[in-house]
Amino acid sequence: xxxxDSEVTGxxxxxxxxxxxxxxxxxxxxxxxxxxxxxEMLEKGAAAIIAERDLGLxxxxxxxxxxxxxxxxxxxFCGNPTKDLKLVAATGTNGKSTVIALIKHILxxxxxxxxxxxxxxxxxxxxxxxxxxxxPRQTELYxxxxxxxxxGAEYCVAEASSQALAQERFAEEVxxxxxxxxxxxxxxxxxxxxxxxxxxxxxLFDMTKSAVxxxxxxxxxxxxxxxxxxxxxxxxxxxxxxxxxxxxxxxxSAGAEVxxxxxxxxxxxxxxxxxxxxxxxxxxxxxxxIAACAQLDVPLDEAVEALSDFKGVRGRSEVIYSGEFTxxxxxxxxxxxxxxxxxSIKNITCNExxxxxxxxxxxxxxxxxxxxxxxxxxxxxxxxxxxIITSDNPRFEDESEIIEQVxxxxxxxxxxxxxxxKEAIEAAVKMAQKDDIIALCGKGHETYQAxxxxxxxxxxxxxxxxLFGLEK
Length: 472
Fold this sequence. Notes:
The protein has 472 residues and is α/β, with parallel strands linked by helices. The chain is built from 15 helices and 25 strands. It has helices at residues 38-43, 66-77, 96-109, 138-150, 162-166, 188-191, 194-202, 218-230, 281-295, 300-306, 335-351, 372-383, 399-407, 421-431, 460-467; strands at 2-3, 6-7, 10-12, 22-25, 48-51, 60-62, 86-91, 114-118, 121-123, 128-129, 155-159, 177-180, 211-214, 235-239, 246-254, 257-264, 271-275, 318-322, 326-330, 358-362, 386-389, 415-417, 437-441, 448-451, 454-457. It is globular and about 75 Å long. The N and C termini lie far apart (48 Å). The relative contact order is 0.09.
């Protein structure tokens, strides 16, 4: 790849990464505008500057949208790897990680080779990487696509976060299928309004060949109307509550399992499915995955059968200790996620007739949507028998202040507060009695606490194992 008769050695939008031969793409961010550093980048050996306005520099190229151009250049530099991959994506506030894991599982059981990109990690069909972002920056993303294609991947399933879509990290890609799970309050610190949040999610459906959309909330219904008015591709609706193109009947939850009959408006028969993971919300997630795979030409009966041995996703309703009582961790870090997760766990404690308690340990993240903090407290108040409020990635905020804001939403349930999350877990374990369930909410797959600019090691699995003297 050449530009201005120079061989390109890399693409970057980070002024700290520039080396001789790099193309520097000027991105205007919330705190830094790359255009201001363009002249310095040329002095450091940049082969070209990509900008959105005339900077009066040699070797500058002006484009309408530098974020989109960054993705295009990153793809070109990596040999346009997605031409060898079939892309599938899921977007929504909750459920993305589980949906793409379910899709990946179905495709792999059918003999396909599948890479994945998401919050839980990146898998290039040869190597796995820890994820710092749900979708990495354009330059990193296309290197992952390249590695997956070189490793023989046929598909790549990805979570499409609202930030990634708003920042056009996927740019000019066309997805085989896109899934919409739901939309509830989150990331308003970044998007400002729910309308902006919805429009960011909607962008995925401007770049797909087919769509699978949950109509259990008003945003799903709105999205269906938008797609049908603007495009002519297939739109499959799904619901775990009502009739849709794909839906569930005879739903039953027992312990760590949930079962139902998968039904499709276009099929004469339904298919029985038993999921070996807890949570009624996973009914909707599995319906979405089956419907998406149907758009990839996987027969419904094969997709349903494939899910019979699905073992779950790290940090999503994950049982990390089972003995006299049970400890489950989950990534639930929004009001909606807490409502869904805790209601499912409460269903276990009530329906099995054990008279057991649900002890909830959770916190709200720092430097994120402040308005959701008391709402998270309300969600825990609704289902838990005892609440321990603690820290969850406070970043540069004061943990005590965040905890107090969460506590405003708790009106009826006894609770206590710990700024140290390890001490909070220890307190929950110490008070637990036979058949109780401890729900550790918010960290999920994460193995760190983000505190004052540092990611400090913190793995709830290791902490719980240590408390019970189990091998780490």
